[in-house]
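haha ok so turns out i had the wrong file open the whole time. this is the CORRECT one, sorry everyone. sequence first:
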Amino acid sequence: MAVTRATKVEELQDLEKAFKGTDSAVLVDYRGLKVPEVTELRRQIRRARGNYKVVKNTLAKRALAGTAFESLSEHFVGTTAVAYAGEDPVALAKVLTTFAKTAPALQIKAAVVQGRAIKAAEVSDLATMPGKPELYAMLLGTLQAPMVNLVRVLSAVPRDLVNVLANAEKARA
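then structure:
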């Protein structure tokens, strides 16, 4: 099936819309992956609320023009796919690095995370960071700590009094 100009324009518009709707994208080289592996990768990326798209290099370079992802244009060489997520770049990085360990054919080329270009090695560093749910839990624990400590201090005096009275009663008996 021949690719017409209309389908290329439509694909270009889809890519532009995808790049404008996200703040993080990772370029990967998928050469050597088998179809079931790519299907599993897509499934895992969807679970992380991300998208995975195999792109044509020339169309992707055009779609990147004027966006925060313009620094990625030099990496569109050979077989290239784009994984992007709008909500949690850490979850996307975790999925890609974990999958790359099980399928070494997947190579991370480069990424842009919240407007900042990063190298492939930095994507694995990003994957070691806690994700949004973990950060929310840590923040909640930090916010609750003063109140919890105050309750412990205030309840310590009556608790200690009850312990002293209980020990005094045992000593009389």
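Residues 97 and 124 are 6 Å apart (CA to CA).
again sry for the mixup
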